[in-house]
Amino acid sequence: MLSRFKQTELWLPGISVDCVIFGFHENQLKVLLLKFHNTHVWSLAGGFVGVEENVDQAAERVLYERTGLTDIYLEQFYTFGDLERNDRAAEEHRSVTTAMGSPDDDLSWMSKRYITIGYYALVDYSKVVVNPGDISDAADWVDIAALPHLFLDHNKIVNKALEAMRQSLDEKLIAFELLGDTFTMSEIQAVYETILDKKIVRTNFQRKMLSLDILLRIEKKFTGGAHKAPYLYRLKP
Questions:
Q1: Burial classification of residue 92, based on how many CB atoms lie within 10 Å of its CB (0-12 exposed, 13-18 middle, 19 or more buried)
Q2: Which end of the chain is more exposed for a tag (fewer CB within 10 A), N or C?
């Protein structure tokens, strides 16, 4: 098998991006995970930074390659560069590259210490067309509360992304990025609850949302009797 990283001169050694791609489906916050070929090892979407590529461009490229989407909410939230993050890197890289049938030069290039820049992306789950990529043979959306043990320190990266997202909920109104163009009040409350991992009193939440003066009520969503149909909202321009 040819080296998957045979053109190493195209990439910056020692620096990568890892993207925590969040989606919201069936009232659950989910993360898109990828499984390396011929292994049971799951990881985040990520990749190395090109020699002639901005770091943000690298993250946008990774997101497009894995989701088929452009112009989505993307935020750089942390740089992971502690020495301890690479304590197990050589062993895990050896296991993965061997299982994938990659040559030794892949291992020698990838198993050295490198720093990764963390990004989180918020996507409309219904619009994502998942592409596992060249080094993965499966992809799956996994509930945030049911993540398996991930490659290297990717569990830590997810937790740090979730922490950053919680801090930006009210300031940047990022929860709406996980929904479609229109939504009910109960749907946006469900997004907040799954991100914060706690229940919110409905009347208090609705009062808070309406007081922000950011929602435009457009019509009723007729899913039952007229008296039960919830209002639909969209963000004001």
A1: middle
A2: C
Say what the pLDDT of residue 74 is. Answer: 96
Give residue 148's pLDDT. 95
Exposed, middle or buried: residue 163 (CB in 10 Å: 0-12, 13-18, 19+)?
A: exposed
pLDDT of residue 10: 85
User: Distance between CA atoms of 110 and 18, rounded to whole angstroms?
Assistant: 15
d(CA 75, CA 215): 24
Q: Is 177 exposed, middle or buried (CB count within 10 Å of its CB: 0-12, 13-18, 19+)?
A: middle
Question: Which SS3 state, helix, strand or coil, does residue 234 take?
Answer: strand
Amino acid in position 151: F
Query: CA–CA separation, 205 vs 211, rounded Å?
Result: 10
Q: DSSP per residue over 82-137, as a string?
A: -GGGGTTHHHHHHHHHHHHT--HHHHHHHSS--EEEEEEEE--GGG------SSEE
CA distance 128 to 143: 16
Those residues of the chain that have pLDDT short of 50 are: 1-5
Q: Residue 220 and residue 179: Cα distance in Å, rounded?
A: 17
Question: Rounded distance, CA 116 to CA 48, Å?
Answer: 9
Q: What pLDDT shows up at residue 76? A: 97
Helix (H) or strand (E) holding 236: none
How many Å apart are CA 79 and CA 30, to the nearest integer? Answer: 22
